[in-house]
Each structure stands twice: as C-alpha cells, then as structure tokens.
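Contributing new records

If you add data, match the layout below exactly. Sequence lines come first and carry their own label; structure lines follow with theirs. Keep one chain per record. Anything else will be rejected by the validation script.
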Amino acid sequence: MPRQFDGRRVRAVRRGKDLSQGELAAAVGVKAPAVARWESGQDFPKGEKLPAIAAALGQPLDVLFPYDGPPDLQLLRCDAGLSVAQAAEILGTSRVPVSNAESGRRRLSDAYVQPLAQAYGVTEAELLAAQDCSFGVRPRGSHDERASAPRTVGEKINYLLEHGYVGQEAPSNDEIVRLVNDHAGRPVVTIEDIIALRAGSTTEASDVVRAGLAHALQVDAALFEDDAQVNPAAREFLEAIRFLGSIQRGQILGLAARGNGGGLSAEMMAKINDLVGELKHKLPEVEDGD
C-alpha cells in the first residue's frame, strides 16, 4: 500500500523548520523545482524519496506519510530508500524480478529472498508476508481482514481514504480540516489533530468532529460512532468499498462474480460484473508451473 503524500503538509512542516525548497531538495537529492511541484500538488515524489524527506524535516515517517494496512513489497523497498534499479543491483539481476514481484506477476526466486530482506531491513518472514500482500493474499489469524476492521476514528479515516477514492483524488489532511470546520461553523480541529488521529497517537474526537469527518468523507455519521468495532451494517459498507477498490486496482484478478450469494444488492453486483469485465483483457498471461 502506498503512503499518503500531502504536499501542503510538507510545505507547512518545511516552513516551520525554516528550510528553503532548495535546502530540502539538496537533502533529498533532487532539484528545487521538484520540491515546488510536490508542494503544489503538480507532482509526487517517488516512494523511495519519502524516508529522506521525513528525515530532512525531522518527522517520523509514519506520521508525515501514513499508510494503512499491511506492507507490500513496494512499501518495504521504498521505506528502505531504494529504487527498483537499486534493489535489482543488490540481487545482481535486471529490474524484471523485482518489478514482477511488486506487481503480483511472478514471485521472487528463493535465492533473492534473503539478500532482499537484508537490504530492506526486515526478516525473511516479513518479506514473504509482504510478497503475499503484493499478490493480494491477506494475512491470516490475528491480522485477518475481518479481525482488523477499522475501530478507531483514525483507522476509519485511513480506511476510507485508501479504499473509497479509486479513480479520483482523495481529500488531503488540509481539505479534511477545512470541511470539518466548515460543517461545524467554527474551528474544531487542526491539521495536527487529523495527523495524530491517522497516526494513532490519539483516539479522542468530539461528537462535533466525528460528524464533520462523516460530512468530509461523505459517509453516514454512524460510521464514526465510538464503538469497539464497526457494527455489522457499517462493516458491510466498508467491505463493499474495499472490495470494489481492490477490483479497480487490479488486486483481485480472474474474479468471476457468481451470483448474489453474499447478500449484495443487484446494483452492487452489476457494478462488480462491469468491473470484472473491464479487467478480463488486462489479466497477465501466466505460464504453466507458476
């Protein structure tokens, strides 16, 4: 799962550190115009640049660029500050094995697991679990998808931003703050509050803020109620968002919708069938024995 990048947040933190765009660019290894494009939303840095940006700004990576869900291979590589070419160089191979594994086309050769895990700073088990995620296999047991349903306000924000805006731009932290405050008719939340909620460093949010978040993210206010776990109706809603998002991202390949056995509406099943039909011509050819 990619990390969330908010250029306006980067600009605010940079200015708070009294750093120029040129100074940040030099620390990251790019030119100043690149930083200007990032901050204006015209462009985004490559994922492997995010650790250097966070370090230059003196911010924890998970706080400045949060992500939701278990890590996949691309996230591990980017968090290690490595490009595909650099990871391939470590393995002494072309970019193809790394790219294929990250895109869920072909798994890594056993010979590549140990050196890549070492390069990424993780265990071999963690690397293999991340590879499973790249292939759309969700962790089991305590990390099962159902067990990890979003519980806190921050987890619900992250979940909706990740799965609810496929094909369109999700609102930034700044936009969420503006929409919540507009809904309340007064300042009730700051960008620092939203970042703290999303990072999990706080779970407290007033009823006014919860109502504003529901308005900002266009969901029913009941979804942000202070429950231990989302209720069954809300779970079905979230699962529908995640499922459709996964199809549109190509994470569920070769899926054939086989009828309305799961209690989905006719409209939802029609949407699923339309999306599956769109995917069929995009499915990669898989050789025998893979």
